[in-house]
Design brief:
By secondary structure, the chain is mainly alpha-helical. It is 66% helix and 3% strand. It contains 21 helices and four strands. The longest helix is centred in the last third of the chain and has 40 residues. It starts with 10 loop residues before the first helix and ends in a 5-residue tail after the last helix.
Length: 467
């Protein structure tokens, strides 16, 4: 007998039946309403055993429900997985930092803790750009030539010109340093002169031991796009050659920043310091353009037949090369720039001396340029097996530096597998921890929907549709 067939006198018995039956579903309104609807259509309170059934149901419902062990185990597992992921957050951050450095982007948030104000200014704010950090550091001590040099380099790289009052400031705080004048001259000549493209058929490349080498040297013409800027640059180079000192302050700044990092107690601390210094740039690159100015002037003087002016220019070149080679703030990038400056000027000074009939100078510069070209050829011809095995077996960080050093060095440093092993072991440990973190994170991601489906989603969503 359905609910619709019951008389009004039976309503109290029926309500008691429904209330007792749906009481366990009090926490789930959807299931409770569904159960009431089913009972309303199908329950029979006049059944002889109805009262006994209701009493038995009340007795069962009054018992203490069993402890939800399965749900508790899920919660414990979630907590363990989340703890494992958070515990390895340094490894996750390191992986992101290494990716940034590999693509020459500045890494973020790798600075040590407990820095004072001056140390924070030295290392900079990872959220700011290089120019903003260099500007803050410089204005904290405007009379510091090292800070001024770094600020000027970042400013010129950002705006393609030197900061306002650059020469006046340099003359005031570091009057005997020629670096600032060379830096200004190199920045001026970025657009003032241009090396023309080759005319006629392209020379055939040289093939030695199956390696494609640069074609034989061939003189090209320099075009002066801005004679006034070109003349100012020459005057700066001449004035710089008369100053007694050449300091770029690169290593000075590196040493000051190294003191901000505590002595490493773990591979992660050592890695953070290494990543920071790998992201630093060199300020000597702008001086590369000075070689074009000198070469263009040598070509100009030789075509004008001005031997006296050319000899004066030779002295200016000699002083520049001597200062670049003797720079105590040098590094690998600086050495590569030095080689480009020396090799490029030796070629065009050879053409100029030969055109002027200065046989001795022409022979000197020709021999110098020949040695530079042979050195470049040897680096190209050298078997790649000498350093490719290092690339394959080196650790994450040493793999960024050792192959480059071996390619650029005339006599690469001897490297053995024993030299690479300590960092490789550290990489293996890091990889294992990062892998376990990835597994824990994956389990967390996949276990969450299982838990929700089992304990949170309504039962109607878990049941298959009726056939």
């Amino acid at each position: 007998m359905s609910r619709s067939e019951n008389s009004p006198s039976d309503s109290s018995a029926f309500d008691a039946l429904v209330a007792a039956t749906v009481r366990p579903l009090t926490g789930n309104a959807e299931q409770r309403l569904s159960a009431i609807a089913v009972l309303s259509e199908n329950a029979n309170p006049d059944h002889p055993a109805a009262a006994e059934t209701i009493a038995r149901w009340d007795k069962v419902d009054a018992k203490k429900r069993p402890f939800p062990w399965s749900a508790t185990l899920y919660v414990i597992a979630f907590g363990a997985l989340i703890t494992a992921v958070l515990w390895q957050r340094d490894e996750i951050r390191f992986a992101a930092e290494f990716h940034d450095v590999s693509f020459f982007d500045p890494p973020d948030a790798i600075l040590p803790e407990g820095l004072n104000l001056q140390q924070k200014l030295l290392l900079g704010d990872p959220k700011l750009g290089g120019l903003e950090n260099a500007e803050d550091l410089y204005f904290s001590d405007p009379e510091n030539p090292a800070y001024f040099a770094e600020y000027a380099i970042h400013y010129s790289n950002h705006f393609s010109k030197m900061p306002p009052g650059f020469l006046e400031t340099a003359a005031r705080i570091d009057p005997e340093n020629s670096f600032f004048l060379y830096l200004a001259a190199g920045r001026m000549d970025y657009d003032a002169i241009k090396l023309e493209q080759r005319t006629g058929p392209a020379p055939k490349p040289r093939i030695v031991n199956g390696v494609r080498l640069s074609p034989p040297p061939h003189e090209r013409d320099y075009k002066i796009n801005d004679p006034a800027t070109y003349a100012r640059s020459l005057k700066l180079i001449e004035k710089a050659s008369q100053l007694p000192v050449f300091r770029t302050y690169g290593n000075t700044m590196i040493e000051a920043r190294m003191r901000c990092f505590p002595e490493a107690q773990s591979i992660m601390q050592r890695t953070h310091a290494a990543l920071f210094f790998y992201s630093q740039t060199s300020g000597v690159i702008s001086i590369r353009k000075v070689s074009d100015t000198l070469s263009a002037r040598a070509q100009e003087l030789s075509r004008a037949g001005d031997k006296e002016g050319f000899l004066k220019l030779v002295d200016m070149r000699h002083k520049l090369i001597s200062r670049l080679v003797g720079n105590r703030d040098s590094n690998l990038i600086n050495e590569l720039v030095n080689m480009v400056v020396a090799a490029g000027t030796s070629e065009y000074f050879h053409y100029a001396a030969d055109r002027l009939g200065m046989v001795e100078l022409a022979g000197k510069f020709g021999e110098e340029n020949r040695l530079f070209r042979e050195m470049a050829d040897r680096r190209r011809i050298r078997s790649s097996d000498e350093f490719e095995w290092v690339t394959e077996r080196a650790a994450l960080l040493s793999g960024l530096t050792l192959p480059m050093i071996m390619r650029q060095s005339e006599t690469p440093p001897p490297i053995t597998l024993a030299d690479l092993s300590p960092q490789r072991y550290a990489d293996h440990a890091f990889g294992m921890r990062l892998g376990l973190t990835a597994v824990a994170l994956s389990l967390l991601i996949f276990a969450l929907p299982v838990f929700l489906f089992r304990y949170v989603f309504p039962a109607s969503l878990r049941k298959p549709p009726p056939a």
